[in-house]
Specification:
Elements lengths: L2 E7 L6 H16 L3 E7 L6 H11 L3 E6 L5 H11 L4 E4 L10 H11 L4 E6 L6 H17 L8 E8 H7 L9 H7 L4 E6 L11 H15 L2 H29 L8 H34 L6 E5 L2
Parallel strand pairs: 1-2, 1-4, 2-3, 5-7
Antiparallel strand pairs: 3-8, 4-6, 5-6
Helix pairs in contact: 5-8
């Protein structure tokens, strides 16, 4: 099989049929009927599964992978890639924020530039000023705290070769941030500027974005742990110098030491730092705990159309 088109379903009932028609038409221009479309239902609470299953009954090229519950967008994408069989794999969200017709340009660029991955980059980040600002902050912190140089304004849409996808699937970690795995897999990857449409509001709230940032940084970097170490040294040195100053003032200058206020402030400050540091260490320990359980990243309830 020449091409596998992989997409995930979550609150997608309004887009599935149009997405299917447009991506099918585009794929036929390249490979006639030598392709498949894989829909991965990530526990969608609407009628996405029913619509996709009805399409699979009409078109044998459609495969619907129904997960047993919601495992998350990244794990659903990985399961879709695991089910794919094509020489080329086109990964895209089905909400039509990214035009399926880009498949033609991406495939042409992949072969002309002898690359293994062509991925999309937004020409301008969508959303209001806060969403654009928070996105810039995310990429700045991620790139400064990890060894993974993450392209800014990266989108899901990408076309990949089979050898790249097979290498990507070797990552078995449970706490995954798929955009980091895309980069860590290596090979020749090139970005392409695309126009991304704005639909409904993002399903990622600000709290979810913060959680995603913490998960990304702690998954790909030990920088927070080293930060704790160096900050501890700084606090120790400052405390030692301050202690020597107090002893000198008391013994030689006969200056009385400060009262309880400075002591209480110091206790509260150091206590807060200790709790913060324990929390950061706890995050890393929780990741080790989860990974040692070796739980499956997703569970398939049923596969339709194959």
């Amino acid at each position: 099989m020449k091409l596998s088109i992989v997409t995930t379903l979550y609150m997608s009932e309004n887009y599935i049929e149009e997405f299917y028609e447009r991506v099918s038409k585009t794929a036929k221009e390249l490979f006639n009927d030598d392709f498949e479309i894989i829909f991965v239902n990530d526990g969608s609470p609407d009628n996405s599964l029913e619509i996709a299953v009805k399409l699979s009954e009409k078109d044998s090229k459609i495969v619907v992978v129904d997960l047993s519950r919601n495992f998350g967008h990244h794990k659903a994408m990985m399961e879709g890639l695991n089910q794919s069989k094509g020489e080329y794999i086109f990964l895209i969200d089905c909400d039509l924020e990214e035009d399926p017709e880009y498949l033609l340009e991406f495939y042409t660029d992949l072969n002309s530039e002898n690359s293994d991955v062509i991925y999309g980059i937004q020409d301008k980040r969508k959303g209001n000023w806060f969403e654009r600002w928070s996105g810039e902050l995310y990429y700045s912190l991620f790139n400064s705290l990890t060894n993974v140089k993450h392209p800014r304004n990266l989108v899901t849409m990408r076309i990949m070769t089979r050898r790249y996808v097979d290498s990507l699937l070797k990552f078995k970690e449970h706490e995954m941030v798929i955009s980091g795995l895309w980069i860590l897999t290596g090979f020749e990857q090139k970005g392409k500027i695309i126009q991304k449409h704005t639909r409904d509001g993002s399903t990622y709230s600000f709290s979810r974005k913060i959680s995603h940032l913490f998960n990304a940084v702690t998954s790909y970097s030990t920088a927070p742990l080293w930060g704790i170490f160096y900050l501890g040294i700084v606090i120790f040195v400052i405390s030692l110098i301050y202690s020597l100053i107090i002893v000198y003032q008391r013994l030689f200058l006969k200056i009385p030491t400060d009262g309880w206020t400075s002591l209480i402030v110091s206790i509260w400050m150091l206590s807060g730092l200790i709790i913060l540091f324990l929390g950061i260490i706890g995050i890393y320990l929780s990741k080790i705990f989860i990974e040692t359980k070796q739980r499956p990243n997703s569970i398939i309830r049923n596969i339709y159309g194959r």
